[in-house]
Amino acid sequence: MKLDKLIANKQKSAQYMIDEITHICKDMPKRDPGSEGEKIACEYMAEVLKNDCGCEKVSVESFEEHPGSFFGWIYFTFTFIFLAMLSLFFFSNLLSAILIAAGFAIAFIQFGTYKKLMDPFFKKKIGHNVTAIKSCTGEVKRRVFFNGHPDAAWEWPVNYALGGVGFEGHAIISAVGALYYLILSVIGIAKYGLSVNGLQDGTLKTCALWGLLFVPFFIGMYFMWNKKRVVDGANDNLSGCYMGIALLKALKDEGIDLENTEVGVILTGSEEAGLRGAKAWCEQHKGEFQDVPTFIFSYDTIHDPKYLMTNYRDLNATVKADKDV
Known about the structure:
The protein is α/β, with parallel strands linked by helices.
């Protein structure tokens, strides 16, 4: 099948993407995870897929989530660290070590593995996903989905103030500071037992006082995200959503029907809250598309050719991409 017309009209498709993304950003509410704006955008793109892209099967599905927990762990972890410092100075080495270890565990489970450990402490909201499929001619022998996330991120004030390197450096220094006090607590336990604090030792006390240099970084962690301000999310990630939508529209406009290959779009909401929509979609559609080889290509932040790359696993190394893809 020749797709020369699609290639020749790529500028038209690009302009279509720009116009649609601009419309959503300017004319619809902000799309933070689980918001009314995310729902409205999903419903709008579902209609586009049905009416403009020739998708016969289009559905909008909802799921429960607690989006505030994805960054809300910061409040728990660093409050635990401050309490651990007080315990180290005035009460117990053991309690200090337990509090810091608990803080690290919360960060790893909630942020590192995208689990829902802290969800009960945050407000429940309803997120939304979209699934759209364009039929093929002949027997279905394979299926291709294009995926993006329609929600937008909260503002990261530290990132704006210090840039990406400063943002990451701040987080790393804070983690090092917490580890520093954990080590002091363990040394105190080893030297003085479980019932007292180790700052009776002059060297340990001096080290603990030097550790106060980490305090400004600990405080800064409370301001790593601003949940009251949501960015437009044109690049991250309406661009990814419209990669698939624009392709399906171009196929319809040119009257092209693929043979033996269904093609579709999956829009998974609340990615910025820890892949909540993607996880919900996998649960809701478990086993549904195993009848033929099915490939899912996920797009995120398509804005500059020099930054384009292909990931062979997710950011946290918990999900590997299929080698066939």
